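Teaching note: in complex prediction, the entire set of molecules is handled at once rather than each chain in isolation. The prompt given to students was simply: 'Predict the structure of this complex.' The entities are:
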Amino acid sequence: MGKLIDMIRQDVRFGDSLKACMNCGVCTAICPAAEFYDYDPRRICDTVQRGDEEEIERLLKSDTIWYCGQCLSCKTRCPRGNVAGELISVLRTVSQKMGYFRSSEKGRQQMFLMKGLQQNILEIGYCVYPDRVDPAYHPEQGPVWEWYHEHIADVAPRLGANYHGEGPGALRDIPKEDLDEVRRIFEVTGGMKLKADVLPTEGIEN
Amino acid sequence: MKRFWNEYQKEIADDHFFYERSCIRQTFFAGSEATFLRILREELGKDICDNPHQHTCTGIGYHSDVVPFETTMTVVARLFSLMTECGYKNYVPSCVTSFGVFTEVMAKWAENPALKEQARQYLWDACQREFEVPENIVHSSDLIYKFREELKPRMRYQLVNRFTGRPLKVVEHIGCHYAKIFPHHGIGKAEFPYVLAGMIESWGGEVIDYPERRHCCGFGFRQYLVQENRGYSIANTKKKFESMEPYEPDFILTNCPGCAMFMDKWQYTIAEMEHKTYDQRGYGIPVLTYEELTGLLLGYDPWQLGLQLHQVQCERLMEKIGIAYKPEEKYLGVGGKLLPTPLKPEILKQ
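The expected output is the structure of the full assembly:
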């Protein structure tokens, strides 16, 4: 498999994400995740930049890399043009390829996310769709969402939506030939392979 | 000052757009997308294509790290191939996450032409399709910004409190991926985004400048999608509410559908959890998408815009502006069918 640092450097996004970090900490100062979690993107850049294999393996097996919210506020601020949030995406990819994500509680959440989001994309062509935002799992959405979820077939046409209809419009059903092409893209480009890395017992087929 | 702002402008095409729908906007604000197309076509006379073969850009999956970059860039290539097939060159995504994904992919292709060739090969292998990169890519809010003065004389209402005669005080919230990733793609760049402020000022309102104006809404992808992580999401939104509260905003305006949803729904959740609301009378601060605001000022029916789907109710705001609406039609379904009303929250007044 090679060294972890080599796997990290081979990711096409790595060159944009980490050039030469001077450890100023501006990324940590602006980071919403650093306010909420015990999380410090400056230290992550430093760990990767040092290239110590043991330290990197520890990082990839930790909860730490899963704390970032991908707002990418760090990109705007870094005086060296690094992108800590993008580096995090690279690290998460390697963690999943190596199976290290299973070592942490936050990492294991990828199994849930993989199942839900890839299933949505491949089955219906949307990341999110009202039928799949279940009020029981989303109590924070409140009673109006519960009402809409229950009465959407009556309400959506009034909004100009084409709920489960054919042709253009919001919430339309995406034609099978388009879903087939999206699925083939996942097969050709490694989307299915990533799923197999995260959910090996489910096999490559969705 | 005028010269200073000139540095913060970007090119926005004038006509012939390919529209890319948003998973989140369709789910939570389906009326906004219909309204946007209506404004472009009926008010402005523009040509905008709504292609039925489009699909997700995978952005939420990509930023949740369950879709590899190579897959996302090829899905983007397929969407561009639909645009190319229909004869368009100007791409207009509805979603701010999508806008970030498209600009990221295009930037990587520009820096690394071999990567673009790889995307062409992947797309050909998977779908036997070819694509051209858009000549102009802007977020849908950029179009309303561009045409804001043209729309103004067609508007029936202004952002003025009809009881006091004073401008309404508006908080504007820009989705992070609009300009934080590639500042030159945003009007006003990342530090002084003007896309929504420009609409507010043109239409008679006053923009509130508050300390956490640029803080993320807190979506955080996996930080919201996994129930156990939602403390991150609500804590970030709460930080914004607390920062804006002393300025007593009349409403919040957003260009990102996710931000609009969170800032609306988390007010309900915070009220339930902490008995706290962010206006003095306990109703919360209404949150509007820029399409809803434009439609309201143009005199469109608020229930066709979808304001009944908001948890923080918008009637008091409409009354301040003087917008005529029919309360009895709020919960009608298709064909005038009267639907039961939603349950009322315990704390947040409706």
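Point out the following to students. The two ends of chain B are 43 Å apart (CA to CA). Chain B has a mean pLDDT of 96.
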